[in-house]
Design goal:
Structural class: alpha/beta
Strand content: 5-15%
CATH architecture: Alpha-Beta Barrel
CATH topology: TIM Barrel
Radius of gyration: 19 Å
CATH superfamily: Glycoside hydrolase/deacetylase
Number of strands: 11
Bound molecules: zinc ion
Order of helices and strands: EHHEHHEHEHEHEEEEHEHEH
Shape: globular
Distance between the termini: 43 Å
Number of helices: 10
Length: about 325
């Protein structure tokens, strides 16, 4: 089974009211996450992957740099590319109305999701963002993930028009994420839409029977391991795991969340120890076909790893309260 370790890399400024002042402290937190324990944003993520010989896919959001300067985007892609990891395109159109000169004619209001834009607007936004990222990286990108997983049929057409052949934007835990396609095709196998191959984020049934995305910050290691084993047993072709540059940090701070950091270490160690069952890497423009028991089939796990995650959540809340600040 192909396992895709994906990371959405983005910088936020605690709202939109005081962007320049906030950016000065937010950029180092989101990119480096300096602390006395180490740098648990990008540096720790890259170091962990490389130590285990794993190659991840880093979907980097470039629009923020049209507001603050190309050098900030260059700094991010240098870290990732120099570590030998894969840089691809992420896009949060929330930045569109902050950029001058305007990328598209109508920037009168902030529109959060790509699905709130017309086909022509989506095409222009993706073209602009792709050029920003490729200029910083010095080479072409070929894969995409929409901010907040907000994608529709027009997005696939806009991607095809921009020469992007693979996508990983569909996440059935988000109502904004291609609901018609999810209903029609399910999300356990790659699908081809308007010539673009889309690898949905893997969603599984947790020990309580609820749908849960395979996200490092939101699942226990046991849940991720059992979901991968369940998918592997069912001969599923691809398993997509999501994380972000800030998932190993405590909310709003540069201090590491050591529960999530340990979980990521366990995940990488497990994948590195099982290379014959799990092939970790990027996305192919020619997916392996797989036959699902039913279109809506999802991996299923037992109760203990979900109970462990609930216990971890309580421990994380107590730990962050105990540190005071
Ligand atoms: Zn994002």
């Amino acid at each position: 089974m192909n396992v895709h370790l994906t990371f959405d890399i983005e910088v936020w400024c605690n709202g939109w009211a005081d962007l320049d002042r906030e950016f000065a402290s937010c950029f180092p937190r989101y990119v480096y996450g300096h602390s006395k324990h180490g740098d648990y944003a990008l540096p720790k993520t890259l170091e962990t992957l490389n130590r285990h010989g794993l190659r991840g896919v880093f979907f980097v959001e470039p629009l923020f740099s049209a507001r603050f300067g190309a050098r900030y985007l260059e700094e991010i892609v240098r870290l990732i590319d120099d570590a030998g990891q894969d840089v691809q395109l992420h896009l949060h159109p929330e930045w569109t109305d902050e950029i001058r000169p305007a990328i598209i004619p109508d920037v009168s209001a902030k529109r959060q999701h790509l699905t709130y834009y017309s086909l022509e607007e989506q095409t222009a936004l993706i073209r602009y963002a792709k050029r920003l990222l490729e200029n910083a990286l010095g080479k072409a990108v070929s894969a995409f993930r929409a901010g907040s997983y907000a994608i529709n049929e027009d997005t696939f057409l806009a991607l095809a028009r921009n020469g992007i052949g693979t996508d990983s934007s569909i996440n059935r835990c988000y109502a904004i994420s291609a609901p018609k396609l999810v209903c029609e095709y399910g999300t356990t196998a790659p699908i081809t839409v308007n010539g673009v191959v889309s690898y949905p984020v893997t969603v599984f049934h947790d020990g309580l029977g609820r749908k849960r995305p395979a996200q490092v910050g939101a699942c226990s290691f046991g849940e991720l391991r059992q979901a991968m084993e369940s998918a592997h047993q069912a001969s599923i072709s691809d398993f997509v795991i999501v994380s972000h540059n800030f998932e190993m940090l405590k909310p709003g701070r540069s201090e590491p969340d050591l529960v999530v950091a340990r979980r990521f270490e366990q995940l990488c160690s497990y994948l590195a120890d099982n290379p014959t069952r799990f092939k970790v890497g990027g996305f192919s423009s020619q997916p392996t076909s797989c036959v699902l028991p039913t279109k809506q089939w999802m991996p299923r796990i037992g109760l203990p790893p979900t109970a462990w995650r609930l216990a971890e959540q309580i421990a994380r809340r107590m730990l962050s309260r105990g540190t005071g600040t």
